[in-house]
Known about the structure:
Structural class: alpha+beta
Radius of gyration: 21 Å
Largest sheet: 5 strands, antiparallel
Helix content: 40-55%
Strand order of the largest sheet: 2-1-5-4-3
Order of helices and strands: HEEHHHEEEHEEHHHHEEEH
Distance between the termini: 79 Å
Shape: globular
Amino acid sequence: MKNLKKVESNELANSILENLDALVLVADNKGCIQYCSQSILRLLKVDKSEVLGMGWWELTRTGKKAQVDEIKTIKKIIAGIIPIDKVPYIKSILSKEDNTYWIQWQDALGPDNTLIGVGQNITENYNAQLIIEQQRKQLNLLSLVAEKTNNVVLILDPKGNIEWVSPSFERLNKMSLQELILKKGTANILSISNNPNIANIFNDVITKKVSLTYESRNKNVLHEIWELSTISPVLDENGFVTNIIIIDSDVTERKLSEEIIRNKNKDITDSIKYAKRIQQ
């Protein structure tokens, strides 16, 4: 029975990834692109052969130096020389037709010394209707994005009910989904989320069919944590929302650093004001 549930979960994850409106790249430790999603080929209007290997860098980066610098960075991240950026970042890519697209990327270390990048096209708000057609090996590789990443991946139905979570959910929250449901009395994100604006955010994703980001302050059994979430709709071939994907990143360290900086700035400001008063 456990094996059956695991198979069903994997089939659900693969089915979602087939229809995910996201750009997916997998690079090895030499900077070569091993896999690219159909959504990238559609966006740039190119063949897969033009993207795989070193083709992606030659296609989307202007100048040899920019290409070499990107590849060096990937090598260092995979080798553990520099840390992976846990916060989504925005970069532009250039198509063969000289169209510039702005993409918000989220990276994660993958299996076999790979780096996986999942991106959203934020150049304009548009209703994408993309279906990813892949081979069995590619589907297995994409499912490992959710299995191996430290980020939490949640799959919801259009009403906000959680249907599937990645194993990292328990690592971050220090409890299983079942334990959270028992605690909250529901599996609906609108009731579980600690973000006060989650209802409005969820409604915008459903009605406008766009990806959004938001922050939440949560508490697990050990300490308080801050999460940065990217929430995206999954559309079928007719443009209807079939599922919602949420990717949570732990940004607690960044939030604590920001708080320390704010406090230091306040201390400096207060000291300056005090010095001015005693000089008057």
